Amino acid sequence: MAVPRAIIVCTLLCALLACSSTDPLRINEPAKPFQAENIRGETISLADYNGSVVLLEFWGTWCPPCVGDVPYLKEAYEMYGDRGFEIIGVANDRYSDLISFLLEYEISSPQVHDEGGQLMRTYLGPQTRYVYPIAILIDEEVYVRATGADLRRQNLLNTLAEHFDAGEQATAR
Where are the domains of the chain? Predict the structure, then answer.
């Protein structure tokens, strides 16, 4: 039995619309604002970091690639923290596991406890496929500048060097 053409067209259009509406993050477009409670019980928002370069890192202590990124994140902060670089971690974890991990690895950057990934789904879209870690680099003007592999391990350091070096060259002119 043949499927009516109208049903096929309608199905394809719905799928196309669903895909386009679930891709809220685009390079060189404004970052979505958010507000969340950090692990100290304080409300933080992206607006608190206006004028800073922010790495928004969705991660978990149970994620081997996330754990492998920790030395690079710490190095990036050591290199660029005094130049306006901030890291906000959004951890999809049990609270006790998160606190133990932060203490063991001496991580002091702001952390949001996001057990169940609600903030991640709100920020990235409910239909987005998630593979941890998810990193988003947001510039001083609150635009998304990089995501994905550009922000993993050594690539993170290279991306930040390019960003900060370009900023220095622009102000030197």
Answer: 5-172
Cα angle at 131 between 114 and 26, to 5 degrees?
90
**Helix and strand counts by DSSP (H, E) for the chain:** 5, 7
DSSP 152: S
- What whole-number distance in Å separates Cα of residue 27 and Cα of residue 144? 5
| Tokens found for residue 43 | 């409300």
DSSP class of residue 3? P
Amino acid at 9: V
Architecture of domain 5-172: 3-Layer(aba) Sandwich (3.40)
Closest Cα partner for 94 from 26, 39, 44? 39
The tens digit of pLDDT for each residue in 88-135 reads 999 999 999 999 999 999 999 999 999 888 888 888 887 667 788 999
The 3-state secondary structure of 112-160 reads: EECCCCHHHHHHHCCCCCCCCCEEEEECCCCEEEEEHHHHCCHHHHHHH
- Structure-block tokens of residue 135: 């990193």
pLDDT digits (tens, 9 = 90+) for 33-69: 989 999 999 999 999 999 999 999 999 999 999 999 9
Helix (H) or strand (E) holding 48: none
Instruction: Let me know: does 57 contact 85? Beta carbons within 8 Å.
Output: no
Q: For the chain, how many residues are written?
A: 173
